[in-house]
Specification:
The chain has about 170 residues and is mostly helical. It has eight helices and two strands, in the order αααααββααα. About 55% of the residues lie in helices and about 5% in strands. Strand 1 and strand 2 form a beta hairpin. The protein is flat.
Length: about 170
Amino acid sequence: MMSPYGTPKEIARQITNDCIARRLRQINRMVTRLYDDALRPLGFTINQLNILATIVSRGPISPGQLGQMLGMEKSTISRTLDRMCKHGWIDIGPGKDKRSQSLKATPTGRQLLITAAPVWQALQANVLDSTAEHNGLLAVFGITAQDGDAASDGNGEDDFYGDDFAADFYGQ
C-alpha cells in the first residue's frame, strides 16, 4: 500500500534521520551523562543535584510541587527522594495537612550543594563554551545560553520556578 509520504522504509528513514524528539532525547542523554560523570566522585547524579537545588531554593516544598517544577513522574520523585533522605541530604517531614509532606535540605545537603558548585560551574561553562572540549554541546545544536544562563522576571526569581511554567508544562 502506497502512502503520499512514501514507502514504509522511506517513512522510517525520514523518521530515524529527522525526528526532533529523538534528537532531543539523544542530547538529553548525552548531557546527563556528562553531568553524571562529573558528579559521580561526589556520590550523586545531576537529577539529585537539581532536586536538591530546587529544595534549597524553594523549600520547604511538597513532593508534588517539586515534581511539577522539574517535570518528573511521581514514582521517580518518590524513589529519588527516598534515596536522598537515606543519604541524609534532605528531610521529609509533615506538610500542611495529614496527607501531605514537606521537603527541606539538611545541613549535609546544603554542604553537598556547596561542594558540587565548582564542579557544576566548570561543567556548565564547558557545555556552553564553543571552544571547550565538548565543542559547545549546546551550540552544536543551535542552542545559545540566555544572559546569565537563566531567564529572570526582574525580581530575582527565575521564570522556570514560576507557577505559570508548571501550569504550562502540565497543560493546566
